[in-house]
Design brief:
- This protein is mostly helical.
- The protein is about 65% helix and about 10% strand.
- It contains six helices and three strands; from the N terminus they run H-H-H-E-E-E-H-H-H.
- It has helices at about 5-25, 30-50, 60-90, 145-155, 160, 165-190; strands spanning about 100-105, 110-120, 130-135.
- A three-stranded antiparallel β-sheet has the order 1-2-3, with helices on one face.
- Helix 1 runs antiparallel to helix 2 and helix 3 (about 60-90) runs antiparallel to helix 6.
C-alpha cells in the first residue's frame, strides 16, 4: 500500500467514525461510539502495517512530539488565563443586563414579586427599562408567570447567542492551536 492510499483510508475511516458518533449522540445510542472508535483505530493501524514506504523517521517524530507538547503547555496555560478574563468580562456590568427584583408581602399573607430588566451597563431607571413583570402570588404562580420568571436570565444573554459567540470562540481556539503548533513545529524543525 502506498502512503497516499493509507492517508485516504485514514480519512475515510475518520469520517465514518465521526458520522457514526454524531448520529449516535443525536439518537441517544451511546454504545455505537464504544464500538466504532476502537474499531476505527484497529482499521487505521492495520492499514498502517500494510504501508511499504517510510511514513516518518525518528527525527520527524521527535519534532512533532516536542511541538505538540509545547503547544499543549502554552495553550492550556494561555487558555486558562483567557477563560478567566473572558468569563469575568461576560458576567461584568457592560455585557450583563441588570435584573432587579422586589419581594413584597401583601396584607393577606401572600408574596408578590416584581422583576425588572434594564439595559446592560446603564443605571437602573425608567429610561433604561427593557421590560418588567409582576407576579401577584409567588407561591401560586400559573404556568405563564412561571415561564416569564424563568426566561429573564436566559434571554438576558440572547444577544451573545445571536452573534454566535460560542462558535466564534471554538473556531478561534482551533486557529490558535493550529498556529501555535505550526510555530513550534517550524522552530523545532530548524533547531534539530
Amino acid at each position: 500500500m502506498k502512503r497516499i492510499t493509507y492517508l485516504t483510508c485514514t480519512l475515510i475511516v475518520a469520517c465514518m467514525v465521526a458520522a457514526m458518533t454524531g448520529w449516535s449522540m443525536a439518537a441517544g445510542n451511546f454504545f455505537v461510539p464504544i464500538i466504532a472508535i476502537p474499531l476505527g483505530i484497529i482499521v487505521v493501524l492495520a492499514c498502517r502495517a500494510q504501508v511499504d514506504t517510510v511514513i516518518a523517521d525518528e527525527r520527524e517524530r521527535r519534532i512533532r512530539s516536542k511541538a505538540a507538547l509545547s503547544t499543549l503547555e502554552v495553550v492550556v496555560i494561555g487558555g486558562a488565563i483567557a477563560a478567566i478574563i473572558l468569563y469575568s468580562y461576560v458576567v461584568s456590568v457592560p455585557l450583563a443586563p441588570i435584573i432587579t427584583g422586589k419581594l413584597i408581602v401583601n396584607d393577606d399573607g401572600t408574596q408578590s414579586i416584581t422583576i425588572a430588566e434594564y439595559k446592560p451597563g446603564r443605571v437602573p431607571g425608567p429610561q433604561n427599562l427593557v421590560r418588567s413583570t409582576m407576579i401577584k402570588d409567588l407561591n401560586a404562580m400559573n404556568e405563564t408567570e412561571a415561564m416569564t420568571y424563568c426566561t429573564y436570565i436566559r434571554e438576558g444573554f440572547s444577544e451573545n447567542e445571536k452573534r454566535g459567540l460560542a462558535g466564534t470562540v471554538i473556531g478561534c481556539g482551533l486557529a490558535v492551536l493550529l498556529v501555535t503548533f505550526g510555530a513550534f513545529y517550524l522552530y523545532y524543525n530548524r533547531k534539530y
